[in-house]
Design goal:
Strand content: under 5%
Radius of gyration: 23 Å
Largest sheet: none
Length: 126
């Protein structure tokens, strides 16, 4: 588990280095996740140790939100001063996400056009 966790953290570190050195607007952990994904695609699957480590992290995911909650509490005065724009952004982005999801689902759920050629190729040849 320690070796796999080291690999995960190294992917994050490399992503962070790339983002900072190239001044990219993409967060380093996102680049690290893309690097990990690319490595898993090249490898052809997810090894069992990576699955077990990821499962362990997911089982304790709620603990990883504690630092974020503390950060929110530490900046409560700033958040209260900007509450209206934050609420508007949250509702707006949620409505936009729901609308885009509904549109994509409507496009994907459309039944395929029926075969009107009767199974024949153009020109009448079978």
């Amino acid at each position: 588990m320690l070796g796999t966790l080291t690999i995960l953290l190294l992917c994050q570190l490399v992503g962070e280095l790339i983002a900072r050195l190239l001044h990219l607007p993409i967060p380093g952990p996102v680049l690290g996740m893309l690097l990990l994904f690319g490595g898993l695609v090249i490898r052809g699957g997810v090894p069992r140790p990576v699955q077990e480590t990821a499962g362990g992290l997911l089982r304790h995911l709620s603990l990883l939100f504690i630092p974020a909650g503390v950060g929110v509490m530490a900046h409560m005065d700033r958040l209260s001063g900007e509450a209206i724009p934050i609420v508007i952004a949250l509702f707006g982005s949620t409505l936009f996400g729901v609308a885009v999801t509904a549109k994509v689902m409507a496009l994907l759920a459309r039944p395929a056009a029926p075969d009107t050629t009767g199974g024949q190729t153009p020109g009448g040849a079978s």
